[in-house]
Amino acid sequence: MLKRPGEYEPPLGKIWTRSEARMWTMTMFSGTCVLYAARASLPICAAAVAKEFAWNKTDSGTVLSCFFWGYALTQIFAGRIADKYGAENILPYSSLAWTMITFFTPHLFDFAYWTNYPLFVLLTIRILTGRPIKDVYSGLFWPALTGEPCLLFVGILSLIWCWAFRWVLDRAKNSGGGRSSPQPDEEVLLEKKHDTVESHLTTAPSASVPWGTLFRHPAFWAAAVAQYTGGNSYSILFNWLPSYFHETFPTAKGVVYNVVPSLAIVITSLVAPVMASRALAVGRTVTYTRKMMEGASLLGIAFCLMLVPMTSSFWLSLLIFTMAMAARGLHHGGVSVNPHDFAPNHAGSVFGVFNACGAITGFVGVYIAGHILEATNNNWSYVFIVTAAQCVLGAMVYTLLGTGQKII
After folding, report:
1. For position 280, what pLDDT does the model report?
2. Fewer CB atoms < 10 Å away: N or C end of the chain?
3. In a 3-state reduction of DSSP, which class is residue 17?
4. Contact of 276 with 293, CB cutoff 8 Å
């Protein structure tokens, strides 16, 4: 049977029943929501925390960006560990780690300023928050929750999810984890076609990943550039938008500008794979589909960000940023699934290295944005124009050199 790129192929012997599939889907969906709530808690509270501790924009950018040091550091080996030991064996420990750090973050802030090296302690806390979060593979907050209450609220939600996940995992293990699947009686020969769904058929995975072959291929680096530029735009919007709206439109309600853009990216992230699948179904090549989706994502973000300096209305600004976040969601039909195209037998390992390119922007782009704001007396236009230019560059490189073909 032919499989689309990245489509799950159940192991021989045991597969999930429909009820088990629904249970795990809801568990992981709710876990992802809680995870991103924990990730978004500090950016949403950044304005209040910065005021409390008298941070300037450089300090805020440094603290916000350091989360991604931990996020990026674990990218390279987390995928390999998940491939080797199983994500279900790693997830309980990583989720408990980021839960406890999120819950105790307000107290750790107080502890940091009790020491003689507050900034160093804060950066360490932020880095450690990012490390366990990567091992898991946005936030809607009550408008009154800012600062310490917000972090504690998210921490409690995370603890509840950790308990629920452990219960689901133990139940699955005790029930035997599925039903028997039929064993193949004969080898089936399948025709492969160039740059189509059929060209991504997998064979038995090898013991090691041929990194040299992958790194020498220009399409990998084109995808990495697109991943970097798109990740940079998302990281800046994700981390700095709450502060932008808080400073530019101080009377606006946080529950609106913290939620609406995030809802847009959720919707398009769900729609993008469907759009890509339909393009493949009507005969478009994988390469064409990936370039179409990623180009629409990057150029859409760039167009929206270049409009921001021309606006002075809160609702128009909200609409523009919502469209920008929606455009980012189209990425999930483009470069986001390229690791499955490039290396179907090593998707976890390649995705870890590949996604690190996007995570790097978290501490580089967010940190530089803080310096730009500090140097230009909070002129947000420079931040958004530079980000838009990078998106255009990423779209050009990926359009010229990108591919959806199998490399290794």
Report:
1. 94
2. N
3. coil
4. yes
Question: For 58-72, 198-212, 248-262, 368-382, which range has the lowest pLDDT when averaged over its residues?
Answer: 198-212
Q: Is the pLDDT of residue 2 over 60?
A: no
Determine the CATH number of domain 193-408. 1.20.1250.20
Q: pLDDT class for 103, splitting at 50, 70, 90?
A: confident
The answer to whether the CB of 408 falls within 8 A of the CB of 297 is no
Alpha carbon distance 47, 205 (integer Å): 48
Length of the chain: 408
Domain boundaries, the chain: 11-180, 193-408
Strand partners for 15: 179
Q: Do the Cβ atoms of 195 and 219 come closer than 8 Å?
A: no
Token readout for 115 is 């020491």
Rg (CA), the chain: 22
Q: Which residue has the higher pLDDT, 135 or 166?
A: 166
Q: What is the mean pLDDT of residues 284-304?
A: 96
CATH no., domain 11-180: 1.20.1250.20
Nearest one of 354, 332, 356 to 408, comparing CA atoms: 354
Longest dimension (CA), the chain: 71
Gap between the Cα atoms of 89 and 79, Å rounded:
13
Task: Tell me the CA distances in angstroms from 26 to 19, 160, 286, one per residue in order.
Answer: 11, 14, 30
Q: Interior CA angle at 99 toward 337 and 361, to 5°? A: 40
Angle in degrees, 0-180, between the axes of helices 75-85 and 57-73, rounded to the nearest 10: 30
Helices (H) then strands (E): counts for the chain: 15, 0
CA distance 118 to 113: 5
Which position has the higher pLDDT, 374 or 194? Answer: 374
Owner of token pair 């924009």: 57
Quick: pLDDT tens for 32-54.
888 777 777 766 666 666 666 67
Rounded Cα distance, 239 and 122, in Å = 17
User: Has residue 104 got a pLDDT over 80?
Assistant: no
Please check whether the two domains, 11-180 and 193-408, share a CATH topology.
Answer: yes
DSSP-derived 3-state class of residue 195? coil
Looking at the predicted structure, is the pLDDT value of residue 67 above 70? no
